[in-house]
Prior knowledge:
Elements: E1 5-9, H1 13-25, E2 29-33, H2 36-45, E3 50-53, H3 62-70, E4 80-84, H4 89-97, E5 102-105, H5 110-125, E6 135-137, E7 140-143, E8 148-151, E9 154-156, H6 160-170, E10 177-178, H7 179-187, H8 195-209, E11 216-219, E12 223-226
Parallel strand pairs: 1-2, 1-3, 3-4, 4-5
Antiparallel strand pairs: 6-7, 7-8, 8-9, 10-12, 11-12
Amino acid sequence: MSRNRILIVEDDKDIRELMEYNLGKDGFDVDGVESGEEALEAVSRELPELVLLDLMLPGIGGFDVCRELKGSEATKHIPIVVVSAKGEESDIVTGLELGADDYITKPFSPKVLVARVRAVLRRRAREVPKEEDVLKVLDLTIHPGRREVVYDDERIELTNTEFKVLHLLARRPGWVFTRYQIVDRVHGEHYPVTERSVDVQIVGLRRKLGKAGEYIETVRGVGYRFRDDD
């Protein structure tokens, strides 16, 4: 994998060149292609460090490119940031559930684009704690073995589900989890819990955490993430 190599998949030449210019100016090596077929070919030749992916592409669409890359052992680790004019909540949720690491809607600020790319790369580089590791994030201490949460030297009593939700989010600060992903990872596939029930669990979890409840941020129409102060 080439260090700092970004692959841009965008069929609009002006937008592609704008992205190439700003990322190149910030020190990245940038390649640009204009179709899904070209994107998959480019990745097969040389693995990029990150893919910026439009959804409305000629031929193979962006969702299918994302599904292909995230479904392969060789490429599933490559971060994907969707950059699309499709800004509906359903499109954002679909992209994230296919494995995209972030979602930027058009039109966008070039400075924001570069900042989001760097944020995704930082999160990827950060080692994810093991399931059994004690977490110390912000002012919280989360002990999986004891199912114990301590904030400001006080133990907080949580239900098993509330603990699992908090642990899931806190292990990856800054990562957005959709409601479906939370249900799937906390309860397992086919568990009879609605996505909206996650909202109820989050409300209860925030209430029990008190001031620390602010660490759990709502991503409107999508899901939740744990605050990242990095």
